Amino acid sequence: MAVMRLGYVHVRVTDLEASRAHYGDTLGMRLVEDRGDALYYKAWDEWDHHSVVLQNGGVGLVKLGYKVETTGDLEVFERRAERFGCLVERMSRGENLAVGDGVRVILPSEHVIELYHDIELVGTETGTLNPAPFPRHLVGVGAPRIDHALITTEDPETLERFFAECLDFRAAERLVTEQDGGELIGSWMFCGNSPHDIAFIKGPNGKLHHFAYQLVDWNAIRHAGDLFAMDDVPVDVGPTRHGITRGETIYFFDPSGNRNEVFSGGYVTYRDFPTITWTADQLAAGIFYIGRELNERFTSVLT
Taking the model in full, what pTM does it have? Predict the structure, then answer.
């Protein structure tokens, strides 16, 4: 029984055509469905029907979808979330394009997550028979897959307990006010083998800080930075690297102001991975290890 990974990110945008250029031409995702008021995208090395949904009207996060290992897991996670005190409801096949039955949970942070097992499989762009390492027709950054999301919560302790107790996530790294008995400021939690499948920091409920794409290495991050300059994409920070997760990164904004990230590197986690602790006096190094300086925009701009 397990939550396997982040499956989809559903966000609002103010301009679908500008978003089409950003997510399609610059990031290189493939448009799989245009519903008029919503665009569905997948990256080239993803199996599922879609991983990003852009809904017309406003900005910010609508919901996150997490794929579970078996259909039987849904009932277990549903019961746990109900016992935790969350508002939980069943979702039916057809409510989400190409997604089967599932469980919808309103988190203590007021965000919405959806747990599901079945989703239409359309395959990667290199296939399963003697595949090439990448498709020849990559556009822009050519992002292979989505990786994680970071949200904000007024109560990081409770949200961390929810993901640990209800969904069996573990904390790879924690940010606290002080080493012994300090207040939790942020948590980077995993369900697979990456440094984080969800992360959250103290802030207003219901807000999105960013969602991220995984790239292959530092050279791909640098190349993405060049393309962002060519396409006049507003860059928030980077290229640089994190102390927390050790990943290489660029943060940037889509045309509506939703923050994106391209991320590479990091380390491998396992179920017995010991939690790493960062203290607030080292926050700047934890977030931006090279420059060791946080800009005001990075900590205050949320959607």
Answer: 0.96
Among the listed residues 37, 72, 34, the one whose alpha carbon sits nearest the alpha carbon of residue 56: 37
Which tokens sit at 152?
A: 């904000």
Give the closest residue to 267 by CA, choosing from 173, 196, 194: 194
CATH of domain 3-116: 3.10.180.10
**Integer Cα distance of 26 and 276 in angstroms:** 35
The domain ranges of the chain are: 3-116, 145-300
68: which strand partners? Answer: 3
The per-residue pLDDT for range 101-115, each reduced to its tens digit, is: 999 999 999 999 999
In the CATH hierarchy, which fold is given to the domain comprising 145-300?
A: 2,3-Dihydroxybiphenyl 1,2-Dioxygenase; domain 1 (3.10.180)
* Residues marked as catalytic: 148, 196, 210, 242, 251, 261
Q: Report the relative pairing of strands 247-253 and 259-265 from DSSP bridges.
A: antiparallel
Q: What is the DSSP string of 168-224?
A: --EEEEEEESSTTTPPEEEEEEESSSSS-SEEEEES-TTEEEEEEEE-SSHHHHHHH
Q: What is the largest CA-CA distance in the chain?
A: 53
Query: What digits encode the pLDDT tens for the residues 157-168?
Result: 999 999 999 999
Residue type, 273: F
Residues of the chain with pLDDT under 70: none
